[in-house]
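Lecture 7 notes: from sequence to structure.

We start with a single chain of 196 residues. Read the sequence below before looking at the structure.
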Amino acid sequence: YTIFQYKKQPINLFSYFIKESFLIQNHLWFLLMLLGLYLIVPFLKTIVVEKKLVEYFLVLSFIFAVLIPTLVQFDIFSPVLIINNKINLYFVLGYPFYFLLGHYVGTYNIPKKKFIYALGILGTFITISGTFILSFYQKKPTSILFNYLTTNVFVQSMALFLSFKNKFFAYNFTEAMKEKLVILSNYSFGVYSVSY
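Now the structure, written as tokens:
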């Protein structure tokens, strides 16, 4: 994609490629994130051997990466952020949480599915209504509740992943349908990459 954008100027091609591919092209944000995840996979592999370790990691991640950052968006809880920043639990923050959550939900049977689906619907309602209310009172658009590490987005993600696991992946596709899905998946990343 970037090579086609390259203009014949006396510039550093490597620097231009990095800037254009990863820093400016917003739709490719996840490539560097995936690189970071793949670099820590050997550490995460030692965690996934035991269900209790995965659960411990997920609880820590939920508290320090999802719950506290959501709460501190509201002024009354802002002192909690000072404590959270001093603890420095960077390993359990961010994308590794969703990475291991996907493993956990995909591997183990999750009870109370209907409750999780209801939370997902509630999370969607909170995202929509909360964004409207916050934007109204701040007199400008806000996207605070769209952050991937807010509680409402977490429950939406969990419900969506669980529904895919239980409905879509449990479906018995015909061989012809499987072939069409493989063809579609072969082209989807390429189409996404050039669609900026």
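The longest helix spans residues 113-138. Keep this in mind for problem set 3.
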